[in-house]
Amino acid sequence: MLSVSALVRGTVTSGDVLRYGRSSRAPAPLLHYSADKRPVVVWNVTQRCNLHCVHCYASARDREYPGELTTDEGLSLLEDLAGFGVPVVLFSGGEPLLRPDLLALMRRARDLGMRAVLSTNGTLLGHEEAIALRDAGVSYVGVSLDGVERTHDLVRGLRGAFRASLSGIQACRAVGLRVGLRVTVHRWNSRELPDLMRLMTDEHIDRMCVYHLAYAGRGAGIKSYDLAPEETRGLVEGIFDWVAGWPEGDPRELLTVDNHADGPFLYLWLKDRVPERAAEAARLLTWNGGNQSGVAIACVDPQGNVHPDQFSWHQDLGNVRERPFSAIWTDVSNPLLAFYRDRRGRIGGRCRDCRFFDWCNGNLRVRAERASGALDAEDPACYLNGAEIAAGP
Questions:
Q1: Residue 141: strand pairing partners
Q2: pLDDT at 20
Q3: Which residues, 6+ apart, have CB-to-CB distance to 109 below 8 Å?
Q4: What's the pLDDT score for residue 28?
Q5: What stretches in the chain show pLDDT beneath 50?
Q6: What pLDDT score was predicted for residue 392?
């Protein structure tokens, strides 16, 4: 996850990070640069969903899924996460609002000292739901939009989904909940990103996260619709240019997610456009460390299986019904976890000699694996050219 707005506009500095000791208990904007690397945990509380999105990494459908963690098991999981020092639990799905005990679980996470974040399609969010989330102590609600109305409804598999999601965003804003957009870009919708940028402005939305396509779940089935590297490069450069044009003091955030070539590319962009910020950005990118799957990001799926990230449900590290998350996450005798914790020299192709490896950490492993069949292959979504990855600083 790359905070484009923080690095382009200088709203986060290394001094801010050091003031909190590079701790994962620092305020949310500084969390990306923590040194203790306590994981943000994505907990997919249910696989059930009222929509049928073409890129859903959970392959969610509107049906019951047996064996999902019970309320008591969920509360025990949260107790263990808090004791382990997890700073944030991101409640996801499926559609988490379909889980009847969601508010109790989120409230408990907050009471245990963790930040509770909700990832939702927004269609089930009305005024009463927004108030309940606010009163439960939810710190942020991310609502997925995949383009303007026709495109969004097509991607989500339901006519009227766009209007329902936008209404959910407005309901959150009306009760003072911090809310943001989440958009996964591919060839069906990439041309509509400027429309979503205008929507962010018009609706006074705090935050936008632009996700690159992950080849997981149904997302693996549409990998042929992923942007080509040169298309991704142009889209990301347009994002940088847009953020650079925001007025002074603009409080919004824009982040890109799941293509860690974005970090080195932003550094190169800054060297050319805002050179006085490049050295500071380099330091922050070093602390960020690129892809944090298996390091500072973890996933617990609806049945309690632990994975290196939310896209890697085919890679099991253990199950919280058998061992606590804290024990699973610290067991580096697991060869898969050992690989994720130390990737330098283990990933081949262009990654092996790339001067930006420490800023990228090999990019998204599930995309590399799905594209080539090998977990240690280069990520085909990297759009940096040979001269850029080989040149001097």
A1: 118, 179
A2: 87
A3: 78, 81, 82, 89, 91, 115, 116
A4: 85
A5: none
A6: 58
pLDDT for res 29: 86
Instruction: For residues 321 and 159, give the distance between their C-alpha atoms in angstroms, rounded to a whole number.
Output: 39
Ordered by where they begin, the domains of the chain are: 2-335 (3.20.20.70)
| DSSP-assigned letter for residue 69 | P
DSSP secondary-structure letter at 293? B
What's the confidence (pLDDT) of residue 26?
A: 85
Q: How far is CA 269 from CA 272, 276, 377, in A?
A: 5, 12, 27
Helical ranges in the chain per DSSP H = 4-9, 14-19, 71-84, 102-111, 127-135, 149-156, 161-174, 193-202, 218-221, 229-244, 262-273, 278-288, 325-329, 335-341, 357-360, 365-372, 386-390
- What DSSP string runs through 309-320? STT-TTS--EET
pLDDT score, position 66: 94
Check: CB of residue 381 under 8 Å from CB of residue 372. no
Which residue type, as a one-letter code, is found at position 143? V
Beta carbons of 57 and 42 less than 8 angstroms apart: no
Q: Note the pLDDT of residue 391.
A: 63
What residues are paired with 213 via a beta bridge?
none
Q: How far apart are CA 239 and CA 237, in angstroms?
A: 5
3-state class (DSSP) for residue 3: strand
Task: Please give the Cα distance from 187 to 179 (Å, whole number).
Answer: 26
